Structures are given as C-alpha cells and as structure tokens.
Amino acid sequence: MDTGKNMNIKNRIKAITTNPKFVNNKKGMTSGLKQLLIKIFSFIVIIGICYVILAPVIGMIVNSFLSDSDKYNPMVYLIPQNPTLEKYKLAWERMDYLPTMARDLVYSCSLMLIQVFVCSMVGYGFARFNFPFKKLLFACVVVMIVIPDHTIMLPIYMTFKNFDPLGLATLFTGKPLILMSTPIPMYIMTIFGCGVRSGLYIYIFNQFFRGLPKEIEEAALVDGAGTWYTYFRIMLVNAVPAVITVSVFSMVWQYNDTFYARLFLISEDIVISKKITTLQATIANVDKILDTSIQELYLDAGIILVMLPIVIIYIALQKYFIEGVERSGIVG
Amino acid sequence: MRKRKLSLSQKRTVNGYLFILPWLIGFIIFYIRSIILSAEFTLSELTVGAVGGYELKFVGLENFIYAFREHGTFKQVLTTSVFDMIIDLPLIIFFSLFMAILLNRQFKGRTLVRMIFFLPVILNSSAISDALELSQQMMAGGISAGSSQMAAEATSAGVDVGYYIGLFTDLAMPETVLDYLVAAVSRINSIITASGVQIVIFLAALQSIPGSMYEVAKIEGATAYETFWKVTFPMVMPHIITNVVYTVIDGFADSQVVTLAYDTAFTDFNYGLSSVFSLVSTAVTCLILVLIVGYIQKRTFYYN
Fold it and tell me: What is the model's pLDDT at position A280?
C-alpha cells in the first residue's frame, strides 16, 4: 500500500516538474548561458595564470637543451634544432652533482626531522598544557614569526664565530670554538626551535593539536599512559596531516635557504642551492666559456638539475600536502 | 625530608614547561639576547679582534645620524622597499582570494592546477628566481636586449603596454590611478609568484565555511554577489589578517633593505651601521603590520 502511495506522489511531482506550464524555460536558459560564460571565463583565467607560472620553467627547460649554434639562430624558438645533452654533462660535472646532492639531502632531511620533532613538541606544549605566562610566551612565538631574520643575523654570527656556551669550550680546549663554515650552527639553532621559519611550524602544530578532540588524551590518561607516551604514541600519530605539511615546508625552505647558508659560511659542498650561484663563474673560469649567453645555458641546465629532486618530492607528496594544509588549520 | 608530591595540575604545569623548554631556551638565546645585542651594536663601533672576539666602543647615536644624514642610499632603499610592499600587498591579497575562489570550484584537472599554483613556492630560491626572470624575458619574445625599465615591464606582461596606456589617458582617467594600474599589470608576474602560500591559506579558509550558510543564503534568495559579500567575505576576514602578516614578512625578507644590511656587515664590515639598518627596517615593518592588522581587525566580526 505504502509504496503505491509513494509512487503516486512521485508521479505527480514528476508531472509537475516536467509540465511546461510550471517550468520557467527562459530563466533556465539565461542561467545556463551564464554558467557557461563563467566556466569559460574561469577556464581562460586559470590557463593564463598557469602559463605565466610555467612559461619561465618551460623556457629554462628548452634553454638547457639548446646547442651553441641554436642560441644564436633567430629561427629557433621553443624547439631546439640540434638538441644536446652537453650542457647537462658539464653542469653535472662542475657541480659534482651526485655527491653534493646526496650531502645536501642528508643535511636538509636531518634538519627537517629535527624541525618536525621539536616544533611538534612545542606546539603540543602550547596547545594542551596550562602554565603561567602561557599567553605571553605564545605571543613570543608570533613575534618570532614576525621578526625578519636579518634583525638577529649579526649577533648570531658573532655568537657562533666564537662559540663559548657558559665558558665550557674555554674550560676544555682553552679557547672558544669557531663554528663558522660548518653546518653545526644550523643544527644548534634548529634543535632549540629557532631554525628556518620554526615559528611558523610551531604555530601550525599548535593550531592542529588544538583542533584534535581532548577525549583521545583523556582515554589514554585513564588507561595509564604517561604524558610523554601519550604524546609520542597517540598525538603524533594523529597529527599526520600536520606532520606532512610541516615536513614539506621545512624540507623545501631548508633546501632553498641561502640566507643562513651564507651567514654561517656553510660549505657549498653541502648546500647545493649555494653552489648554483657560483656555477656560472666556475664555467667561465674553469672551462673558459666566456660568452655570457652561453654560460646562461649551462646555468639553466644546472638549475634544472638542482630543482629536480625537490619537484619530485613535491609531486609525490602534493596530494597529502595540500590536503594537509587545508586540514591542519594553518588557517585560523 | 620527604619529597613533596605534586598534584596533577602542578604536574601538568611542569610537563608543559618541559615540552616548550627547547624553544624557550632558543628564544632567549637567539632572539631576546640578539635583539638586545643588536641594540647595543647600533650605539657602538664594533671591531673584531684578532683572536676571534670583538670589542665595542660606545659612540652614542653616531650610527643613526650617519645612516639618516650621510649614507647615500639607505633612505631611498628603505622607502622603495616599503612602498613596493604597500603597493603589492592589496594586489596579492585580492589576487589570491580571487584565485582561491576560482580554484574552490569543482572542475577537471583541479589537482594539477593547484600543483602548478604552488610551484613558485617550491622554486623560490634567489638564484633560481633570477634565472627564471631571464627565461621569462626570453619567452616573451626576446626583447631582453632593450634594457629600459619600461621594456622589461612590458615584456614581463607580454603586451604592448604603451598602446593601452594611451587608450586610457584618452578617457581622462586620473593619472595616479592609471599609474597604479599600470604598475599592477606589469607586476603581475611577481604577484603571481608571491601568492602561492596565500592562495592555499584562502582555499583552506573557503573550505572551512560550513555549507549550511550557503544553503540558508540560497533559500533566502540571495544572489551570488550578495552571498559573496555577506557570507564568504566576512568568513574569510580573519584569514586576510594571516595573509597580510605573511605577505608583509615574506616581502621584506627578500627586499633591498636586507641586502643592504647584509652587504654593509659582511662586505664593508661596518657592523654598527648594519645593525641600524636592520633595526630601523624591522621597526618600520612592525609598525606597518600593527597599523594594517589593527585596521582590519576592527572590521572583522567572526573568529573561529
């Protein structure tokens, strides 16, 4: 009985909605057209902007395959006539690519792990515990994000130039340690939560942990888990989106960072993004290629080699990464 | 003596401090101490000793007076950096909001487009961006030989700017507005590359708006225009603050002032002067931030 009644109503609704008397055809058409126009418009805008972003990259890729004769051939645009891998070969050799890249990846990855560990800990501390001066201290985190790095560069430079914490170094070796031109200052700063953009990561983790339900921890506490156990085995596991977001950010920014690398005079053999800045000069001096526009071709090839691993990591993780940014409450 | 047992809340207080301890130490050593030292450097003449230490000689306000009265480029560089940032700021914010709204729709290839939009963030190393600029000029038709500023701007936009400017001056548009628009158009490249993170933040903000609000607006018969101004815009308002802060800091991080301060310190070895540059530019940045954020905050109604 019941289904029959339902069918009846459904039929009636269908009759009404398909009845030309009750359907506003005109409005339907204009809104359809409007929809289409909006679609076309947004399509054009998106394609255009993608072009603006991608054009220089495409240009660089093309450049890196050009041979010397192509560079001066006005007929060659975008498609090389005599494509060659010679530029890559030399750039690869002069940058000592594989060993340098391996060292840089070890350097950036280890710093990334420390960043994730320290910043998540601090973020968790701010998100879940109540202690005196908490508001003031968190304001300090924001201050840390806001203050540009160059404000503190000189004192930090001086500190690490003769590093003497509490007079310990003088006690054991007789003179302060000189930590310049080693990556140690970067590690020390990162361990103490003041690495490249650490403030931002602390903020992200804080936001994320605040968004997690408190019941998880309460359950853990009732079951007899200690604070640290709860943090490592329960909270950190639940924070995977935030961890991925921070990892990618930290990896990329550490890899691209030249400011601290220059400040601490870290060797080019460790920081490949610093090496790329001297590649053109090396090509000019060692290989005696004195034509600037030919040098640029080598530089382009070198930059593509440097970009490659980071782009691969990004493409591999981008799905998790963008979802992570959206869920981890980098906002709000 | 028996060890006093801590209550649960006391324990949690101690644990809280333990969790933030590494950062707290770092902040005191690397930030508070550095800022105090910086302030000290500005008032003194610093000479690096042979052994590795340094000596300070108090000179009063001499460095400040030198920076503002005698130094050749400091004032000019500072004002250019500030104005560049102030011009770019609204453009970047509105552009990224607009793009986030476009990207928030469902369409084919959405993930790919998002990936491309975030690419500039991945590639923002100074060496790389210089090379990218060169290749941008190459792509725009190889007018890179023309060295004048206008030619560079025109090529980066990829159009004949002069013709369109003429068109609008004929319409008697106010010249200042026109100048701003021309600057905006010719900066489109740098604006797009600078707004990767902002777009993602706005996207996240848009997705956090509950769908029920749009449903209500629809039932009440609001048009798309009204929905945007009455629902979307107020809801993303708090994130505009986040983005303003991010944009200002990011813009200052690679401005000319930083380069100037760096060069003064490590090429000319004038540490006191460099500290003056750093501190003054930081103070200016913070002042601008406070003003803008305060202004926006008065107009923000929703906080989550």
Answer: 80
pLDDT band at A115 (very low <50, low <70, confident <90, very high): very high
Looking at the complex, report in whole angstroms how far the Cα of residue B150 sits from the nearest Cα belonging to chain A: 19
Whether residue B63 has pLDDT greater than 90: no
Query: Cβ of B138 and A150 within 8 Å?
Result: no
Q: Give residue B115's identity as a one-letter amino acid code.
A: M
Q: How far apart are CA B93 and CA B22, in angstroms?
A: 35
Pair of tokens at residue A298: 């080598």
B156-171 pLDDT per residue, tens: 545 565 676 677 777 7
B193 vs A contacts (CB less than 8 Å): 53
CB contact under 8 A, A149 and B253: yes
**Cβ of B291 under 8 Å from any chain A Cβ?**
no
Q: Which of A74-83, A167-176, B105-114, B140-149 has the lowest mean pLDDT?
A: B140-149
The DSSP annotation for A265-315 comes to T--TTT-HHHHHHHHHHHHHHHS----HHHHHHHHHHHHHHHHHHHHHHHH
Q: Looking at chain B from residue 241 to 280, which residues have their Cβ under 8 Å from any Cβ of chain A?
A: 242, 245, 249, 252-253, 257-258, 261-262, 265, 271, 274-275, 278-279
Per-residue pLDDT tens digits for B264-301: 888 878 888 888 888 888 888 889 888 988 888 887 76
First to last CA, chain A: 54
Give pLDDT, residue B143.
39
Give CA–CA dist A54/B135, Å, rounded.
11
> Which one-letter DSSP state was computed for residue A223?
T
DSSP state of B47: E
Contact list, A146 vs chain B (CB under 8 Å): 245, 249, 285-286, 289
User: What is the chain A residue with the closest CA to B252?
Assistant: A148
C-alpha neighbours within 13 Å on the C-beta side of residue A190: 21
